[in-house]
Amino acid sequence: MEGVVALNIAIIGYGVVGGGVYALLRDGALGIYVRRVMDLLPIAGLEDGLFTDNIADIISDPAIDCVVEAVGGLHPALSHVTAALRAGKHVVTSNKELISHALAPLKEGAAMHRAQLRFSASVGGGVPWLHNLLRQKRGDTLLSVHGIVNGTTNYILDAMGNGMDLSAALKDAQRMGYSEADASADLDGLDTKRKCAISAALAFDAIVEADSVPTLGISAVRKIDIDTFAQHGLTCKLMMYAERGDASLCAYVEPSLLARDTLAAHTPAHYNCITLCGVQSGALSFFGQGAGRHPTAENIVQDLLDIATHATYKDPFLKPVPVDNDMERHPYYIRTSRKELLSGIDGEDWNGALLTKPMAVTALHALAKAIREKDPDAFFAGVPGYDELCHERSGKV
């Protein structure tokens, strides 16, 4: 490719994503050459000399310019990435747990050793979300980011909207390769909150701890909930939200009831739909496959091509910013068999559940935690108005 400098890479982890990256690059047609592949066990079909089970073979090799981390999780990925950056090697990863946990120190390590850290595939799978978020920031002030960033839960909720129950939809997602055998990180919203923290960090130049983002998942959603929402013309999606404040930011994750005519409500199967709102741009939405081997691998390859062509954006300086969700208020749907736990909360009956008057996000998430200690099957969903908020604030600082 014209303008591309040859790049020699190593891939750490030969699972779904790592194997996908290798498949896209094995012929060297893009000017990116796989020189090592590391995994715990030998890999059938690799060319002689490519396989290693020792990270030192990669870190000590001066011919390797860049490391693709595809192990997932926090350990040993963090030590591998840190070692690669200290050796002056660029790093590309899709590991949202790693990036949400250690973005600031990893960025500092990369800068210190004149290496690049790229992680476009950590949010949105194959959607070029973070790439375009950084691009938009060059000449605009971002006010908020929100959307569907987990393909597994979107697939499940879409299937439930078409008549499946939760367990059948989950099994279908696992069969299609959109979910791991242990889907708890998806169902409990942990994956989404990590992606929310990463998106907010880049949008607002903030250090956002994932554990500071209050999160509700969909593990307790039932067909009765989906049917109730449909009766009111609403669709349920697991959403992340983050908004710029004066001295803090708002950030949270929860199932959300959306009007059927909204873009996010029409997002099918394992697709993602993520929106930023800028002072000048208004709302810009990005849609694409949020899960799967090839979409995620392709986003990693795009990061590698950016390194090879020296395409860069100004690296944001991250500063600590507290998360404060007291100011965001909207109604909530609450279904629990322990009705006494809802005593004193104003609202209307929805097929035996309660649709509350507007409540602060902080208060509802605290209430949800208390209720779930006594009723683990309770389900909660917000009814946000973020589309209107974005349009109202566009053109204002």
Write a structural description.
- This protein is α/β, with parallel strands linked by helices.
- It has helices at 16-25, 56-59, 77-86, 96-112, 129-137, 151-161, 166-175, 184-187, 190-204, 223-231, 293-308, 361-374, 386-393, and strands at 7-12, 32-38, 51-52, 66-69, 90-93, 117-118, 142-148, 206-207, 234-244, 249-259, 271-278, 282-289, 319-320, 329-330, 332-335, 347-350, 353-356, 359-360, 379-382.
- The strands form five sheets. A six-stranded parallel beta sheet has the order 3-2-1-4-5-6, sandwiched between helices.
- Strand 11 (271-278) and strand 12 form a beta hairpin.
- The protein is globular.
- It starts with 6 loop residues before the first strand and ends with a helix.
- The model has no long low-confidence stretch (mean pLDDT 93).
Oligomer: single chain
- Which parts are unreliable, with pLDDT below 50 for 5 consecutive residues or more? none
Shape type: globular
Q: How far apart lie the N and C ends?
A: 42 Å
Category by helix and strand content: alpha/beta
How would a textbook summarize the main sheet?
A: 6 strands, parallel
Overall helicity:
25-40%
Q: Spatial order of the strands in the main sheet?
A: 3-2-1-4-5-6
